[in-house]
Request: fold
Amino acid sequence: MTPKQQRFVEEYLIDLNATQAAIRSGYSAKTARQTGAENLSKPDIAAAIEAQTQERSERTQIDADMVLQGILHNIRRCEQGEVVRNSRGEPMMVETPDGEQAVAYRYDATNALKGYEMLGRHLRLFTDRHEHESAETVSRVELVTPDMKPEEASRIYREMLREPGKRRH
Reply:
């Protein structure tokens, strides 16, 4: 790798933004988006990024298992509910359908669903591929995302070059 490419790797690991990493590495701002994408598709750069990411994960003890456990913990807390308290800090009471009094709980559906969404993305239950239909053709749009493996991004790029009628975002 050239010194500029090594600098790109270092800058990319800061925020996983290839365009900004290219600019900070000294590439032209006009072509930074293309240069960043090209750099990510180069096997030696992809390998260096993977190696440094793995090294950082080992050093910080932050890995996918830790992140997934944190998401699960927060989902469970959101589903468990939280006691609703009045201005004095006392639990609020509500009347149940059978006329009894019970402590009021607040279920945090928004954050529970966000946690499930994050887990679903990790398990690839959802896809960022969208079908677009027009009167003449049907085309598929595939998103290239920062967490995508370089080989997958390269495959999408190669398909785009072979099939110029398809647009990718």
